[in-house]
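User: Sequence recovery, please. Input:
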């Protein structure tokens, strides 16, 4: 027999799970949009443009997976925005690479909410996604970060 407080705890946990998945979904949707800009500013036919295309597909697949996960838990996946505000103009290949690294940092940060959930399967999924985003960010940036997904301001004491 489940107590009323047990049911309330499950609902809160479910809400927390859906909220974390929605946050990651929003980051994936923004990354998908952003990679369209990134790819457009890289040299036509270059290896970097090919990488941007592959990363775009990765984010689209993650978007679809998160959408399914939210729906399976009884949530309504939030639709993507029509457009997203970029952090600044993207006119050069260097600015495009910087945008790609920023997009990946934001994706990694969003998945940290999933890593914090109590369900071990979701924690593992979130950790794999944080790692994958960190690897992509490092490739675009040309260097790694000590704590992927955590803003530098959160690391100061």
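Assistant: Recovered sequence (157 residues):
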């Amino acid at each position: 027999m489940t107590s009323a407080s047990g049911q309330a705890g499950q609902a809160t946990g479910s809400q927390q799970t859906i909220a974390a998945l929605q946050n990651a979904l929003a980051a994936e949707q923004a990354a998908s949009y952003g990679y369209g800009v990134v790819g457009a500013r890289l040299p036509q036919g270059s290896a970097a443009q090919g990488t941007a295309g592959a990363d775009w597909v990765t984010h689209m697949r993650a978007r679809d997976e998160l959408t399914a996960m939210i729906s399976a838990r009884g949530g309504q996946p939030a639709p993507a925005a029509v457009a997203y505000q970029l952090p600044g103009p993207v006119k050069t290949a260097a600015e495009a690479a910087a945008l790609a690294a920023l997009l990946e940092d934001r994706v990694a940060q969003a998945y940290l909410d999933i890593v914090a959930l109590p369900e071990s399967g979701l924690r593992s999924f979130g950790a794999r996604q944080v790692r994958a985003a960190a690897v992509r960010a490092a490739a675009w940036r040309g260097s790694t970060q000590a704590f992927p997904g955590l803003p530098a301001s959160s690391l100061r004491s």
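The chain has one domain: 10-78+88-144.
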